Amino acid sequence: MNWLETGINLAPHHKQGFIAPNPVLLAGGTIGNGEALGRGLNTAALGGVVVGPVMRRSRAGSNAPRAAHVNGGLVLETGLQNRGISSLLKRFAPQWAQLGCPVIVQIADSRPADVQAVVNRLNEALFAGIMVNGMELLLPPRMDADAVRHLVSAAHRDAELPLWVKLPLENVEELAPAAAHAGADGVVVAQPPLGAALAGAQLVTGALYGPLAFSPMLAALHRVAALQLDCALLACGGIHTPTQAQQALQAGAHAIQLDSVVWVEPGLPELIVHALG
């Protein structure tokens, strides 16, 4: 594939671009803030890692239980627990260069003013020499296109870094163009579908991870690819094998993000890179 020599520009219209050495990245939440590396996970072999999510202020997250197993997957609800942008940059950012690949920070705020505050802190980190190569805005669920345009515009307005937008699985045909037209350098299809499962006697409702998530993601990816948006397209959701990775790329994705496969077998992302090459 041509990325073996030149890499892949996942922000082709940004002033500095985002050159990923290969099309296999890790999704937000898989390795925490960059510190939660499973044994056998070689991040230096990957096209990039998304760290976070992070918000302007720290957040405690959901009460236990947060996770419940289903056949072929996991339902997880963290409540966007995070330490806040100041703590993230102080405690974890100095070690990002050791990951050996591009680093993207996922922003989870839903208010434009808060998003702008986080973007400004990331600009400062970039100018201070911190290893940060991009941003990913995690859209809240149940946003309409106007709200998406407003939030993405707030992130894009002062951003020095390339900006991706991670879409909810629902309404991708409506939200993807809204994000792209508001300044997103790339769109990620998509956030995990909603699921529910019992943990003992308690019901856990949250994001559904695992191979079960691949089929709805691939269907949404086909629909967004058909729009031929003038931005990068990334696929995320349930990719656990080289065959699934190849299917996502054939469906129109320029790159993929791996999530729960990292928790199952930390060595598989590197194997997927080699299989695609």
Q: Which architecture per CATH?
A: Alpha-Beta Barrel
| Secondary structure: number of strands | 14
Distance between the termini: 6 Å
The best one-word shape is: globular
Which helices and strands, and how do they pair?
Elements (H helix, E strand, L loop, with lengths): L2 H4 L1 E2 L9 E2 L3 E3 L21 E7 L12 E4 L2 E4 L8 H7 L11 E5 L4 H16 L6 E5 L6 H13 L5 E5 L4 H10 L4 E4 L4 E6 L2 E8 L4 H12 L6 E5 L5 H9 L4 E4 L2 H4 L3 H9 L1
Parallel strand pairs: 3-4, 3-14, 4-7, 7-8, 8-9, 9-10, 10-13, 13-14
Antiparallel strand pairs: 1-2, 5-6, 6-12, 11-12
Helix pairs in contact: 3-4, 4-5
Overview of the molecule:
Helix 3 (112-127) runs parallel beside helix 4 and helix 4 packs parallel to helix 5. The model has no long low-confidence stretch (mean pLDDT 96). This protein is an alpha/beta fold and 277 residues long. The chain has nine helices and 14 strands. It has one domain (3-57, 75-276): TIM Barrel (Alpha-Beta Barrel), CATH 3.20.20.70.
Short structural description:
An 8-stranded parallel β-barrel has the order 3-4-7-8-9-10-13-14, surrounded by 6 helices. A 4-stranded antiparallel sheet has the order 5-6-12-11, with no helix packed on it. It has a two-stranded antiparallel ribbon with strand order 1-2. With 277 residues, the protein is an alpha/beta fold. The chain contains 9 helices and 14 strands.
List descriptors.
alpha/beta, TIM Barrel, 277 residues, 30% helix, 9 helices
